[in-house]
Amino acid sequence: MSMPAARKHRPRRRLLTAATALTGLVAVLLSAPSGAQAAETLVSQNKPATASSSEWAGTPASAAVDGDNGTRWSSAFAAAQWFQVDLGAPTAVSRVAINWEGAYAKAFTIQLSTDGSAYTQAYATTTGTGGAQSIPISGTARYVRINLTQRALDIYGYSFWEFQVFSGGGTTTPGARLLSYAKPARASTEQNDVNCNPCTADKAFDNDPASRWATSSTNGWVDPGWIQVDLGATAQVSQVVLQWDPAYAKAYQIQVSADATNWTSIYSTTTGDGLKDVINATGTGRYVRMYGTARSSAYGYSLWEFSVYGTGGNPVDPPAKPADPTFPATRLVFADEFNGAAGSKPDTAKWTYDPGVPQNGEVQYYTPNSENASMNGSGSLVIQARKQDYEGRQYTSARMNTSNKFHVQYGKVEARIKVPKGNGLWPAFWMMGADFLNGRPWPYNGEIDIMEVLGRNTSEAYSTLHAPAYNGAGGYGQKYATVDLSQDYHVWAVEWDSKGMRFLLDNREVFYAAKDTVENTRGPWIYDHQFYVILNLAVGGDFPGPIDATTPFPSQMLVDYVHVYQ
Question: Sorted alphabetically, which Pfam families does this protein's record hold (predicted)?
């Protein structure tokens, strides 16, 4: 149940070393580590490539391994296709990066072979979304093949600008750790106004990906612009990770200093492209600075996070995150079976009514009344939308949540639900970041939409994430076709840990949001904290559209159970 507003980010990512900035879909490390990581090696560029077909002579297989994002391979207009690169010798491979053209694959597998005859599967998906994909794999191969089986655009074939295979990327600096958390920070200027309050330098070092530093909107939209951190003592720096806001640097340096006066550059680039930069550069100093010399736009500079890794310094450990669950998770930590007597209200030890006027252009009033939310005596909660005058509105419904009763970080969150059919109806099962209750505004708290269905087409559903950098119509998610969901109960779930979220419908994966992919194609991942569960049935609004004379009232969203496992 997203709130309106959106801004979209282009899908690009960079891994950067002190010596070079790779072109094309550049090499990357797949997550901000607890220790520094070695640079990966691109092992596929200009190696022999073959394919099942080519659309025409101008799009040969070789064009996808030439390091040029202006050339591409494209296939014949058929569903069953493949592309393969010969690395020349058996190689320990760690990742495949694909920069898709518009004709991407929804379903494909990646296979490895040492002899070009016997292949093993290293990765598979049926929910590909195109753009820039970074896929971790593990194995030894001379031949790396992608088998393409379902097109996003049925009238075309498949096409990508670059298909890159990488090797390496393990930890290389013993004892390396995060050195910059909660350390004193300074910047050339800071923004602290109605549009960004506060966006001070310390926000880039607070390990909170939903807060940021920005240069002042009154005198900071100039070059140069900089931000620095005091590590507390001399440190041996081995890696810097920058998570950029759209106001990123095209040209900048990473510098170190012993005294915050005399600076030495350990990395520089003039081709910065924003989002997440993982910079493997070494140097010694107490102070580390990002020194920007060319902005990407008319605005200033802004970073969600600036993380420095290495040894030495005087580090402070950030709060520990809970351990990741092992899926399938089996330890039940919350359950409501809704087995109360007919007409009885939900358990107030578990649920809070959330009455009032909604957002998103909806027309109902959410009431605390049992006629809008009560048990039916047959094992289900009934959330009912009614045509009814109430508090100046002509329609009523219910919204209820577990706020201040049950909060959770990581696990499997599931509900068995039957949705209503009708124009303008909008049932939802979702979660909000619990810091919303302490005053952090949406979307900075984060929103996880496990299920949304629009009553006008109950053969489709949506699972979506919302954050400061991607929200509203620009949320990160998936629409998926299914059976008519209004005809029976169905189980929606999310399996959520520190690496991502796997969304399920009737135990079938419909969408996977990888933390690494989100950070490197859309913006910060802001879901590593506690959330609470919400159930509601909206009427009308920006997303489902208006009700009309055919919309049935009353309409019911039936919930058989809600379970949370860890």
Answer: F5_F8_type_C, Glyco_hydro_16
Asked if 530 and 476 sit in the same domain, the reply is yes
DSSP reduced 3-state for 191? strand
Q: Establish if 322 belongs to a structural domain.
A: no
Q: 183 and 135: one domain?
A: no
* Three-class DSSP category at 306: strand
Candidates 305, 414, 447, 495; catalytic one:
447
Q: Beta-carbon neighbour count of residue 198 at 10 Å?
A: 15
Q: Which of 305, 452, 495, 519 is catalytic?
A: 452
Give yes or no: 305 in active site. Answer: no
Residue 328: cis peptide before it, omega within 30 degrees of 0: yes
157/187 same-domain check? no
Residue 212 lies in a domain: yes
- Asked if 445 and 496 sit in the same domain, the reply is yes
Measure the CA–CA gap between 3 and 272, rounded to whole angstroms.
32
262: which 2 tokens?
A: 């005399």
* Boundary of a domain, candidates 167, 201, 232: 167
Residues (pLDDT < 50) of the chain are 3-38, 170-172
pLDDT at res. 122? 81
Domain's final residue, options 312, 344, 372: 312
Q: Write the DSSP string, 446-485.
A: -EEEEEE--TT-TTEEEEEEEBTTB-GGG-EEEEEE-S-G
Judgement on whether residues 234 and 374 belong to the same structural domain of the protein? no
> Measured between alpha carbons, how far is 189 from 233 in angstroms, rounded to an integer?
24
Q: Summarize pLDDT for 31-53 with one digit per residue, the tens.
A: 333 344 445 789 999 999 999 99
pLDDT of residue 135: 86
Query: How many whole angstroms from its chain centre is CA 499?
Result: 10
Task: State the pLDDT at residue 28.
Answer: 32
Do 275 and 348 share a domain, yes or no? no
Q: Which residues pair with 85 in a beta bridge?
A: 49, 144
pLDDT value at residue 39:
54
pLDDT on residue 32: 32
**pLDDT at position 405, please?**
97
pLDDT of residue 140: 84
Together in a domain, 302 and 345: no
Is position 260 within any domain?
A: yes
- What is the domain range of residue 555? 332-565
Same domain, 199 and 83: no
Per-residue confidence (pLDDT) for residue 31, from 0 to 100: 31
**Residue 452 known to be catalytic:** yes
Q: Please tell me the pTM assigned to this model.
A: 0.74
